[in-house]
Write a structure and sequence with these properties.
Distance between the termini: 44 Å
Strand order of the largest sheet: 1-4-6-8-10-12-14-16-17-19-21
Helix content: under 10%
Number of helices: 5
Strand content: 35-45%
Number of strands: 61
């Protein structure tokens, strides 16, 4: 049995079955190990919130024979006396609700071979003393809250066979010294914010079997040295910004049965790769790149040679899955049936959060409102009316708002407390934040707001206007503040260090005061995508008369470990780059992404500007500004020119999409265009005959648009000329970015879905909806994965919630 199998079995509570109990029956742990090791364990418990651990049996009891998660080896007893002390060789405390920091005294566990603290909420600095653990074989600190560069002292762990730092916030480049950890068989650095190129030195890891760098910000090409990893079975480099061609050296990887290079910027051909044994369930995923699949090419022949080792992923087809529905059991209490539901939200794992009204289970007529989190087959009650509200002194919820959900599963909601002792109208409202389904109060009306030196008097939270949930467990908040002589609206966001910071407020005095600003505004056609707040890192963008009541401005607040960096991006009267003599006359609501890039619609004035060319879509990045599109310019994919634009949307890769109109002769048609970062717009769909996909008829109009990080645009359109005619109306369309091909809509008026043992016809859909207090967050789709969730109403009056996360994929030429 290998180390990882042991780790996962422990997680589900089977460790006691696998490891025999210690023969020491009279001496506790304190007698079994050296004092320095015992004290190190005590320090670990105290510095990581031991009393709140999920499992803590035995801990701090010196007479306990064992402490849960701790393995001791080598202790010998004679009768009731320990004649030889043992040593701590393993700590398995994954998914155990550890918080805080690992103490430096961990270095006193000099014979530690395995340290698994993954799936917790550890933060701060990884102690350098870990670098002295010369016997360490397995180190797993994944899915915590570590940030900064990968610590250099890990280079000292020459015996490591498994290193897992995935699911944190590490930044900077992958260090070249990783190639010196010659015993590594598993290297997992996925889901961080690592940038730069992949070092060639990783090719020195001749024992490497599993190698994951997915979901980072890596650039450059795939090193040719990767082909030297002869033992490699699982290579996952997807969701980065890798460029160049796939190196032919990957053809040397004869043991490879899982290869994921999707969602990069790779070009050229696919080299000849080894065809794995189909019994190993091989997966080859090249989707969302710009690879050569032209008929007759060697690249296509190489791809076809792999199709016997299915599945081979190349493009998505969407398949809806039922989450909840009218009259079905909802939540852990199967006797409670769903009566109605709010607008659901989905994250990158496919988890769904939704507010549901449930029938009474006690024979009465009273109903209960609950916020439910659906994760696979598990349903968690996050909050419920009538139950005690966390952190509110025993007060109970009387009302719950629709929840928001970040891509990483951070859930936030506005709740109202029942009037009673200590609860009045002035302090009954609050915001609760939940991770792993457990809610905690973050902000409550009447509570003093942390505002630094911006106000001469203490100010308190009043109304809660808008909220957003951030991946790292933080909150974005628009709230009213009040105090003696103070009444203002303020914008807050959580930085990467976990601190809720004041960014701006309306006023005339104070460092962060602005004249007037707009945020979380409901905008036509782009309601479904986050704009004011980037919910990955907590970056914020606002517009308004920030410095002067006569000058419109756009500002961005970029999140960092030391707080937020304020940047005024542009203002009215500023010259437009690339347009000699033209300047910004008016600026509309901006949209910001995780990289701090901002896009917006603007009105122009100045030399050469007239009514027919006075509107533009603009993008500002760290490298400067760029004009995306302008009225009067030729509209790509058509024979006409742009006549108008709606507000644009932006994804985390810097791609921009927008709905606009185009003048073709005497006719005006609406359409959708998408622009890759730094590129030129390409047509996605145009009002008129539907020329792509399997649905015939016509696009009548476009009502909503979003742009995920993967694939292409997703939009809601009204269609006509359908068969049957009852299908005329709305349809949801996903697009494959590589070919701009439209796929069969996963939901469409007049089509049927199977619900409660019957095929039912769709009459309405709730998707991309405005939600009170939650306008600022994507909810009907996840921005990173493109996963979708929506509520449909059938012609018989029943309703159901469906999500689209499992993509059936096939080869497309």
């Amino acid at each position: 049995m290998n180390r990882n199998m042991l780790k996962h079995l422990y997680t589900i509570g089977l460790l006691a079955v696998l490891i025999p109990a210690s023969p020491l029956h009279a001496q506790g742990l304190k007698a079994q190990i050296p004092p320095a090791e015992y004290n190190a364990l005590v320090s670990l418990y105290q510095s990581t919130g031991g009393p709140g651990w999920k499992l803590r049996d035995g801990w701090l009891n010196p007479n306990a024979l064992s402490w849960v998660g701790v393995t001791v080896s080598g202790a010998i007893e004679s009768g009731t006396t320990v004649t030889q002390r043992g040593t701590v060789t393993a700590i398995f405390l994954e998914q155990n609700k550890l918080v805080g920091t690992i103490p430096s005294s961990i270095g006193n566990l000099t014979n530690l071979a395995d340290l698994f603290l993954n799936g917790n909420q550890l933060a701060g600095t990884i102690p350098s003393s870990i670098g002295t653990l010369s016997h360490l074989i397995g180190l797993d600190l994944s899915f915590n809250k570590y940030a900064g560069a990968i610590p250099s002292f890990l280079a000292n762990l020459s015996q490591l066979t498994s290193l897992d730092l995935g699911g944190n916030r590490f930044t900077g480049s992958i260090p070249t010294w990783i190639g010196n950890l010659s015993q590594l068989t598993e290297l997992r650095l996925q889901q961080n914010q690592l940038s730069g190129v992949i070092p060639d030195s990783i090719g020195n890891l001749s024992q490497l079997s599993q190698y994951w760098l997915s979901f980072n910000k890596l650039t450059g090409s795939i090193p040719v040295s990767t082909g030297s990893l002869a033992q490699l079975t699982d290579l996952e480099l997807d969701h980065n910004s890798l460029t160049g061609s796939i190196p032919a050296s990957l053809g040397n990887l004869s043991q490879l049965f899982r290869l994921n290079l999707s969602n990069n910027q790779l070009s050229g051909g696919v080299p000849q790769l080894p065809a794995a044994n189909p019994a190993n369930n091989p997966i080859y995923d090249f989707s969302y790149n710009s690879l050569d699949v032209s008929p007759g090419s060697q690249s296509l022949a190489n791809i076809l040679a792999l199709t016997g080792s299915n599945p081979l992923f190349f493009s998505p087809i969407y398949s809806p899955q039922l989450i909840a529905g009218d009259g079905l059991p909802a939540g852990p209490n199967i006797a409670a049936k769903a009566l109605s539901a709010g607008v659901p939200a989905v994250d990158a794992a496919g988890d769904v959060a939704v507010r549901v009204v449930l029938s009474s289970t006690g024979g009465g007529s009273a109903s209960t409102t609950e916020i439910l989190l659906y994760s696979g087959s598990t349903v968690t009650v996050v909050a419920s009316t009538g139950q005690t509200a966390p952190g509110a002194g025993g007060a109970r919820f009387v009302k719950l708002g629709d929840p928001v959900l970040s891509g990483s599963g951070t859930l936030a909601f506005v709740g109202t407390l029942k009037a009673g002792p200590g609860v009045t109208a002035a302090n009954a409202t609050g915001v609760w934040l939940a991770t792993s389904g457990s809610a905690a109060l973050v902000v409550r009306a009447g509570q003093t707001a942390v505002t630094g030196t911006n106000f001469a008097v203490p100010v308190t939270f009043g109304s809660i206007k808008q909220i957003g949930a951030i991946d790292g467990g933080g909150l974005a908040l628009l709230a009213g503040l009040s105090g003696h002589g103070v009444s203002t609206t303020a914008l807050f966001s959580t930085d990467s260090g976990g601190t809720l910071d004041l960014l701006a407020y309306t006023g005339t005095s104070g460092e962060l005061a602005v004249k007037n600003f707009s945020s979380f505004a409901p905008l036509a056609h782009v309601t479904g995508q986050s704009r004011t707040v980037d919910t990955v890192n907590g970056n914020v963008a606002i517009s308004g008369t920030l410095d002067s009541p006569r000058v419109g401005s756009i500002a961005a607040y970029l999140s960092g470990s030391a707080g937020f960096e304020e940047n005024f991006l542009t203002e009215t009267g500023t010259a437009v780059s690339g347009l000699n003599g033209a300047s910004f006359k008016a600026l509309d609501e901006p949209a910001i992404n995780s990289q701090g890039a901002v896009t917006f619609r603007a009105t122009l004035s100045g030399t050469g500007v007239k009514a027919t060319n006075s509107t533009a879509i603009y993008l500002i990045t760290g490298s400067g500004g760029a004009l995306i599109a302008r009225t009067g310019q030729a509209a790509p994919g058509t024979s006409g020119s742009f006549a108008s634009f709606d507000d644009p949307v932006i994804n985390n890769k810097g791609d921009v999409a927008f709905i606009g109109t185009v003048k073709i002769g005497t006719a005006t048609k609406s359409g959708i265009w998408s622009t890759p970062a730094g590129g030129t717009p390409s047509l996605v769909a145009l009002q008129g005959p539907i020329s792509q996909g399997t649905t015939m008829g016509n696009f009548a109009s476009f009502s909503q648009l979003v742009l995920p990080d993967v694939g292409g645009a997703v939009f809601l359109a009204n269609v006509s000329g359908q068969t049957p005619a009852a299908a005329d109306g709305f349809a949801l369309w996903p697009v494959w970015a590589l070919s701009q091909e439209l796929f069969t809509p996963p939901v469409q008026k007049g089509r049927s879905l199977f619900f409660r043992d019957a095929s039912r016809t769709i009459s309405a859909v709730d998707i991309f909806q405005d939600v009170p207090t939650a306008l600022g967050q994507s909810r009907s789709f996840d921005a990173r994965t493109g996963y979708l969730v929506y509520k449909v109403t059938f012609t018989d009056g029943t309703w159901a919630i469906y999500e689209v996360t499992q993509f059936e994929e096939d080869l497309v030429f």
